[in-house]
From TrEMBL:
Residues 185-287 form the DUF6596 domain. Keywords: Sigma factor, Transcription, Transcription regulation. Belongs to the sigma-70 factor family. ECF subfamily. InterPro entries: DUF6596, RNA_pol_sigma70_r2, RNA_pol_sigma70_r4_t2, RNA_pol_sigma_r2, RNA_pol_sigma_r3/r4-like, WH-like_DNA-bd_sf. This is RNA polymerase subunit sigma-24. The keyword Transcription applies. PANTHER family: BLL6612 PROTEIN, BLL6612 PROTEIN-RELATED. Residues 116-167 form the RNA polymerase sigma factor 70 region 4 type domain. It comes from Knoellia subterranea KCTC 19937. GO terms for biological process: DNA-templated transcription initiation. Pfam families: DUF6596 (PF20239), Sigma70_r2 (PF04542), Sigma70_r4_2 (PF08281). GO terms for molecular function: DNA binding; sigma factor activity. It comes from the Bacteria. Residues 22-84 form the RNA polymerase sigma-70 region domain.
Length: 416
């Protein structure tokens, strides 16, 4: 017999799982119904609290996401009644009480795709677009998003609040733009999808090493964007982003050890890589090369293609990778790109040359910068400096798998 405490824990875990995996779908549907981001989030929050009370007693419903949607919809209608909004708005919302409402009309019938285009409207500043998308689509907490952006939680909360207010004040429509407006919105959408995927690939949360659901959602949405962008000639950067995600995702089965520790690329069991995703990613990269209009996502995908083409780490074509990073630096000269290029340079010119480049970047709030320095210092025999760099890396990441790997690397140096 299940004790009350264990039943409560089971119910709480079930609610947490549903919120983590279905938040974006549920909140997007509520926004479509009621046309109000704040109302959708508040109502879903109330539904989650009710679930925490009822599920331990009544059991988890067969369709948890549907249960949350129905409960949140009723709460939203209650809010509208209490606030005595305009009769026409209430009448419109009152008709939307069915659990499976028809999709809105138009060429795109994906609530989450509409949501991401709303969040990526040009009227919003780029940091706000990304933050709002991660909050609404990924269900990340404000604290998790703030950690990913390396800013205080209060700053991020203000940023998200202002973005929601801007959407309401400017009456930004909840839809995918028409073909003539799609091109100018596409770059912003791709940038956000890239960051959503990155959050799924290696989570900023202390509770999850990765977010498979978020990575899968980013890939699904990128495929959808690829489909609707055919009307404007299928820009090659859409293909590049999809290939980059697929080739990165192909390595996921080998990225974590049985104890949850991160496994770096050079130590991964490449027989575990997903050959279907690799074949699809390589085919898209070849098509991008044929079109000869390189951009940042295509170049990153090409780098991943070189990595996934090597049957063993020792067979990696580092000359080609450095050449691709040189091209990437020409179109996207950021410190992060420079850091990744330095890692490749170390394989060709040695750790001393790479360390000089890395030290010049000064990315002191970025865990991979400290980790890269630590590895290079260790290869140079500067164990004390390497230990300090690993400690700094551990202090600047909350990801449990990453912290475990960094700690193991630090311990492997010996000494205190």
């Amino acid at each position: 017999m299940t004790s009350p405490d264990s039943a409560a824990a089971l119910g709480a875990d079930a609610v947490a799982d549903v919120v983590r995996t279905e938040y974006g779908k549920v909140v997007a549907g509520l926004i479509r119904r009621f046309g109000d981001i704040g109302l959708a989030e508040d109502s879903l929050g109330e539904a989650v609290l009710i679930a925490l009370e009822r599920w331990p007693q009544d059991g988890v419903p067969p369709n948890p996401a549907g249960w949350l949607t129905t409960t949140a919809s009723r709460k939203a209608l209650d809010h509208l009644r209490r606030e005595k909004v305009r009769d026409e708005k209430y009448a419109e919302a009152a008709m939307l009480t069915d659990d499976t409402p028809p999709e809105a009309t138009g060429p795109v019938t994906d609530d989450r795709l509409r949501l991401i285009f709303t969040c990526c409207h040009p009227a919003l500043a780029e940091p706000a677009r990304v933050a709002l998308t991660l909050r609404l689509l990924g269900g990340l907490t404000v604290g998790e998003i703030a950690s990913a952006f390396l800013v205080p939680e209060t700053t991020m909360a203000q940023r998200i609040t202002r973005a929601k207010a801007k959407i309401a004040k400017a009456r930004i429509p909840y839809r995918v733009p028409e073909q003539q407006d799609l091109a100018e919105r596409l770059a912003g959408v791709l940038a956000v999808l890239y960051l959503v995927y990155n959050e799924g690939y290696l989570s900023s949360s202390a509770d999850n090493a990765d977010r498979q659901d978020l990575a899968d959602e980013a890939i699904r949405l990128t495929r959808a964007v690829r489909g609707i962008s055919e009307g404007i000639g299928s820009p090659p950067e859409v293909d590049g982003l999809l290939a980059l995600m697929l080739l990165s995702q192909a390595r996921r089965p080998a990225r974590f050890a049985d104890d949850g520790t991160l496994v770096t690329l050079d130590n991964q069991d490449r027989t575990q890589w997903d050959s279907v995703l690799i074949d699809e990613g390589h085919a898209i990269v070849r098509e991008c090369l044929r079109r000869n209009a390189p951009g940042p996502y295509q170049l990153q995908a090409a780098i991943q293609a070189v990595h996934t083409d090597a049957l063993e780490a020792s067979l990696t074509d580092w000359d080609q990778i450095v050449a691709l990073y040189d091209q990437l630096m020409a179109v996207q000269p950021t410190p992060i790109v420079a850091l990744n290029r330095a890692v490749a340079v170390a394989e060709l010119d040695g750790p001393q040359v790479a360390l000089a480049a890395v030290d010049g970047l000064g990315l002191t709030a970025y865990a991979p910068w400290h980790a890269t320095r630590a590895d290079l210092l260790g290869r140079l025999g500067r164990d004390d400096d390497a230990r300090r760099a690993y400690a700094a890396a551990i202090a600047t990441t909350d990801n449990p798998a990453e912290r475990a790997w960094l700690a193991t690397r630090r311990e492997s140096l010996g000494g205190r």
